[in-house]
Here is the input.
Amino acid sequence: MTVNVLLLLVIAVTFGAGITLLLERSLTRIVVGTLLVGNAVNLVFLVASGAAGRAPIVDPDDPSPMSDPLPQALVLTAIVITLGVAGFLLAMAYRSQQLQGDDEVQDDIEDTLIMALAERDEASQSWEDDTGGEPDEEGADR
Amino acid sequence: MLLLAHGVAAAAAPALVRALGRRVFLLLAVVPAVSFGWFVAQAPTVTGAHARTLTETVRWVPQIRLELALRLDTASWVLALLVTGVGALVLLYCGWYFAPRDPALWRFSGSFVAFAGSMLGLVLARDLLLLYVFWELTTVFSYILIGHNPERQANRRAAMTALLVTTLGGLAMLVGFVLLGDRAGSFRVDAVMAHSPAGTVTTVAIGLVLLGALTKSAQVPFHFWLPGAMAAPTPVSAYLHAAAMVKAGVFLVMILAPAFAADPLWRPVLLVVGAATMLLGGVRALVQDDIKLLLAYGTVSQLGFLIAVAGLGTRAGALAAVAMVVAHALFKAALFMVVGIIDHSAHTRDLRRLSGLPRRMPVTFAVAVLSAASMAGIPPLLGFVAKESVYQAFLDAAHDGTPGMPSLATTLVLAALVVGSVLTVAYTARFLWGAFSTKPDLDEPTPVDRVPFGFATPPVVLTAATVVLAFCAGPMTKVFAGYDHLFPAGGHAAYLALWHGLGTPLVLSVVAVLGGVALFVVLWRRDTLRAPRWVPTAERVYEATLRGTDRLAVELTGRTQRGSLPFYLASILVVVLLIPGTMLALNRTWGGHYTWFDSAAQVPVGLVMAAAAVLTVRSRRRLTAVLLSGVSGYCTAMLFVLHGAPDLALTQVLVETVTLVLFVLVLRRMAPYFSERPLSRGRWLRRGIGVLAGIFAAGFAAAATGARTGRPVSDLFPQAAVEYGGGRNIVNVTLVDIRAWDTMGEISVLVVAATGVASLIFLITGRGGEQNPAEPLQHHEPVSAWLRAGRTQRREDRSIVFEIVTRLTFHTIVVFSVWLLFAGHNGPGGGFAGGLMCGLALGVRYLAGGRRELDEAAPVDAGRVLGLGLAIATIAALAPLAFGGQVLQSAIVDLHPPLIGDLHVVTSLFFDIGVYLVVVGLMLDIFRSLGGGIDADAEGESPDLPGSYADLDLDPDDVASVTQALR
Here is the structure.
């Protein structure tokens, strides 16, 4: 199969830029990063589908080679899905703005609590230390 | 059948409890009692020297050879009799034990019967894996029963300990079973036995299986869960310690002994562990003040005895083991019931506070004395018969010699067992003395309630069996022959007898009894019965292990689960770069033909796209970043065109436009600049990962292209598209026909995404536009108004020219979108592109006239459009089934209606219509939410839109201060 070097370079730059944005905390940047990564991945399909050709529409009069239709079908669904994902992420960014005043993804509070436990060398909150007491079928702990 | 009855009874029990109260136990006892009768009737077949094995198989999942295979031979017959007989008696006993209005009775009754049923299944299982299933079922039900009163922390711990310890052993046993079954080629017990494979793998497997048996039977060092198990109600203890659960381990040893006793691991492990357990349990029983706990440690001791005998693996040992199992079940169940009666009548189990009971409860006293004497091995009771035969069996084994154990070692084990018996006699004496004697330091006898007749009946029955069976030693020898004849004959013929004659066993018995009495007297005289508390090392190790695991989990979670999204993403990406990246660098499929570009036009487009990507990263304004990403998207579309993919280009342009509009709609409510964060180190790290990821992606694309050496599957698509799909646009036919399943999944995802967007903005319902309660539009507005925005929009927000142009072009665009839908089969277009186009038309209406205008243009609920689209697509997919076709198959219909001319219809068109509607619904939802919803929020028209932490019941100050404090 023919490999298009120019497209490879475009893929490298776009994908790298998208990943860099994905690693940010701002949800807007993350959405933009998702879009860039999406574009780059669609181009990967394009490169892997081989050489360019005429549109994959059957025409008995035109014998010139067509481009490969299967990757195109896959990419077409991917484009529309990207729209759905972008819409969803934007709605999340908006909610975040509503609730916290910015669209930054904060660290999870529960995880922070566990980290604090680990720093203090303590057991988890569900741990019951043996406080004595005899097992018996009746009565409750005092 | 009997198992089924237990299951039904267990399931019905909770309901019956409501109707009958505690009398339900009398009814439930019928189930095991009937089973007991059936097993008795099978005696002639499955017992004796010429015993046959009854089998029964119910096919379950034949594909994986999983079946309910059951068997009944002498050993399982004996155990089944104990399980059902003692089970029935214990259930009867429960009828008097519990308070009439015990609120937890419904749970107890069900789980107890289920526990009994699991135990029965365990002893009847023919398949090792089935045995394992029942094994774990008994573990689970015992957990529920031990935790009967979860209000005490000690009870919860005891239940959890029993669960963890026995499950640990169970899992080891499962691995052992799998190894054994794999070696033997079958999981049938009989097949494994017949095969009796040998070798290192078998030894490992046996070791694992024995681990399971030892944990279940509470052997050292796993003995500590059993005394804790007395947190359960006393009837459970009576059953669990005597006939069920702990006997499972002994049973397993018994059925495996004929085949595997010669294994080098077998005898050393079982004999030594058994003897050690007997000694440890005996010593600890001697220092208890609670008579129930005393019996519990006594059980540990007796179990050690049983394991040692069952593990001996000779014919005499086998006979003695069966006899001892029966004797132990009878006396231990009776003794626990006695404890329960004392507890209920005298309201204490502390032997320092019990005094003068025999006179007030003579029947109970008689039962206790007889059963305790049987435990101590005093003639003429079953315990004596069994114990004598155990001594004889060990003497024979020491004389004959057995594989794996030198004679001297066997003799030493025998000596340990005799010492254990001394301890047994001593703690038996302590039990009787403690429970029934008249203590001089207590002024008056313990006040006692009357013992109901029914309450005392079950232990009386058990004790009667202890006495009667002792005189049936001869017949018992014959009956148990079905089991012991699985072993080769020993030097002496083994038999059970009340009177073995004057010989070494009798001497040993006398030594044990005299020694025990002497020990008790010495300890009592010197008043050292409250011996120093032993250091319970096994418990400490268990405790430390659990706490260590918990701490490890906290540390590990603290280290790895940082709760930071960038951290997680970076971890994933680094792993991707390290492992698949290395593989990619090492692979050899770089071949293929390289070319700089396909057409010259690609060069400027590609350069612009790359520049846009770089600038996006560097931009500080939100809008700039978004616009640059739009440039990247349009460039992608142009690259699609240049590659020969008009459908993709069309879709990409439409999607990119919609995305830009959405961004603008959302960004108008956000700060124009990204917040500044002083993260220079992090920034370079991010960029480093980004660069490497970009190189990885390009390398992946090159390798993937180079690896394609076969003929593409799509070579066949053009022909298939025309012949079966009835269309010339191969991409569209692929979407709606050849690979329609993918599309089906995709539109489902779109529905989910649309619902997600709507629910994030309209937290409650109300995405239906007019259905929104805040829309009394029709009431004060003539329907015929052409430019509706005149009444609903602020003047400065309006653009009359834009509004009029929009109204004029709207219908044209919608018609064009429908044309795209229909034309898509043969030319560029299709459901996706058509739907996007129609959605854009709606979006323009919204931009021009506001959300009222959007509701006017599409007076429908977006959810209904989505649902309708999905339904049409599904019906179109399933319809071929009605005509004998396959799902998603399409047919070509040529109609010739008058006036219109020839009409060429492919049924997959309906599927495409579904796609179209789903996309329109998605767009409508997005514009309603991100457009109209945000407008309404800004205008303050929806006061119920949650906008702060108050709705989450969190005080923002608290959250902030907690977060601050944690840092």
About this structure: The beta strands of chain A are 2-4.
